[in-house]
Design brief:
It is a single chain. Helices cover 31% and strands 24% of the residues. The protein has helices at residues 23-36, 41-62, 113-121, and strands at residues 10-17, 70-77, 81-88, 124-127, 133-139. It has a five-stranded antiparallel β-sheet with strand order 1-2-3-5-4, with helices on one face. The longest helix has 22 residues, at 41-62.
């Protein structure tokens, strides 16, 4: 998944401080744009949940809850498709090394559920080679 072409209908490029509270206004802004384009409520929920999980992961795990580190988000979309790119200032991680929380031996481990949810609710999910950037794509299912 490469960065979008510049002819998308709406773009957002923001950097937020590494505080959990800062993410809510950003999520609200993206959801408002989805509502203006009449995206189905279910898909708005999918994007909201995925944004909450990805931003929380960037703040908590990527930036180690360090308030001096920032999270950068870019979002591009049309009426039918959106791409969200979230980067943190951490050293990154290997997403394939995160244990599957559905396996019996991992049921009590409190990690990995966010990635599972993101992968379930978004159309496509990819990471940069070092794992400090997530690319999430959502295609609209109907009009």
């Amino acid at each position: 998944m490469s960065e979008p072409e510049p002819d998308w209908a709406w773009c957002c490029d923001m950097t937020i401080p590494g505080l959990s509270e800062a993410k809510n206004k950003l999520i609200d802004k993206i959801l408002e744009e989805m509502q203006l384009r009449y995206w189905p409520e279910r898909e708005q929920f999918d994007v909201q949940l995925s944004l909450e999980e990805a931003l929380t992961n960037a703040i908590k795990h990527g930036n180690a809850s360090d308030p001096s580190k920032n999270v950068h988000l870019c979002c591009w979309f049309t009426d039918d498709k959106m791409i969200i790119k979230i980067s943190d200032e951490g050293t990154g991680f290997n997403p394939e090394s995160v244990p599957d929380p559905r396996h019996p031996e991992n049921l009590l481990i409190p990690s990995g559920r966010g990635l599972l949810l993101i992968r379930h609710h978004m159309t496509t999910v990819k990471f940069s080679p070092n794992g400090s950037t997530i690319f999430m794509e959502k295609s609209r299912s109907c009009r």
